[in-house]
Structure formats: C-alpha cells, structure tokens
Amino acid sequence: MTILDPRRLFGQEGEAEAERYLRRKGYRIIAKNLRSSLGELDLVAEDDRVVVFIEVKARRTAQFGGAIHAVHRQKQQKLIRLAAQFLARRHWMDRSCRFDVVLLEPTATAALRIEHIQNAFEVSSDDWH
Questions:
Q1: pTM of the predicted protein model
Q2: Tell me: the pLDDT tens digits for 9-26?
Q3: Which of 43, 51, 109, 114 has the fewest CB neighbours in a 10 Å radius?
Q4: Which residues contact 47 (CB under 8 A, 6 or more apart)?
Q5: Exposed, middle or buried by CB within 10 Å (0-12, 13-18, 19+), for 21?
Q6: Nearest CA among 57, 50, 56 for reference residue 28
Q7: Which class would CATH give 6-128?
C-alpha cells in the first residue's frame, strides 16, 4: 500500500478538477502528467486544432497571487522545452500551439475558484531553440 504525500494528493486532485473544467469548455485532453528527463507536462489538450500545453497550479491559499504569478520565466522556459520535445516526438512541429495556466484556489465556501488564462505567456521563435 502506497501512502501519498498530502501535497501531491492535493495537486493530483487539482489536476483532475482542471481536466474536468477544460473538458466542459470543449478541450480534448490528449496527454496527462507526461514525464520526461526534462520535467513534466500537467495536461496537453486540443482546443479546435491548437495544441495547448496546460500548467495546473492548485493552491491551498490565495496568499501567493493569481495564476499570472504562478508560472515565472524559468518555469516558462522549462515548459517550452517540454512542449518542443512533445511536438517533435509526434512530428507535430507544424501545429499551432499555446500555453495556458489553470489556477485552482479554495473560496470561503470551500468551493474551488478556477482561474484559466489562455495564452498565458508569449513564446518567441528563439525560445524554441
């Protein structure tokens, strides 16, 4: 029997909630928790014909700011490298893609507040190399 770290379990629950939310919005989830030597992609989806790489942040409090503060430049660079690896492995380098962030935070009523930022950060052609 494996006992999960409460933080890890909270994160997994947040990712499952984000996935449900995105499916309701019409996204088609094509990969979850995709790990490589470079790191992990939380969710990969299609929104129409656009490949969307989604970083999910589940927080127990709102003290750290919103989703806009959840993915700093270093994390963005890591996500870009992971996305390039994903696209190359599938021979999808010609596909349009973007990066979204989904932040989940509790509210006073114990419900989760979901903040979804589409196209959360810009990627230049130099970033792909």
A1: 0.86
A2: 666 788 889 999 999 999
A3: 109
A4: 26, 27, 28
A5: middle
A6: 50
A7: alpha beta
